[in-house]
Design brief:
By secondary structure, the chain is α/β, with parallel strands linked by helices. The protein is built from three helices and 13 strands, in the order H-E-E-H-E-E-E-E-E-E-E-E-H-E-E-E. It comes from Salix suchowensis.
Amino acid sequence: MANFAVSFVALSLFYIFQQSNAASASFNVITFGAKPDGKTDSTQPFLKAWSAACSSASPSIVYVPRGSYLLKAIVFSGPCKNKITVQIDGTLVAPTDYRALGNSGYWILFIKVNRVSVFGGTLDARGAGFWACRKSGLNCPVGARVSLSLSLSLSLSLSLSQQVALYV
């Protein structure tokens, strides 16, 4: 009976250890080179953090700390191996000149992803220049008509609270 109890305890500890290792992996965008100054292009570091999270076998968190992060047109694509949470404690900002987005038609695009949740933060698309051009009746470049796009994506959730703002 003592051997059974020892075996049971050992097996239980092994299971608990395995479950704790299966916990969420966290990928901080700063670790991948993002700069929280609102001026340095952080598009590639965000894509590297996304790629690491997307290829992870365990649930993952892409973490965006406080600060402002300049992102040009960016595509977060899947399919991914497990669920991903994007936790934004800072602000994502588009280029001041909307023409920098080209004719992409989007600023931030999630495509072919499942089980993705986005929480917190502020998305500032800096749309004043685009809308001023459109209002003037001039022939304006297309730029990004949509700030946040979802394409062929299932189970994507956005959590907008009183502290979250979407500026276009």
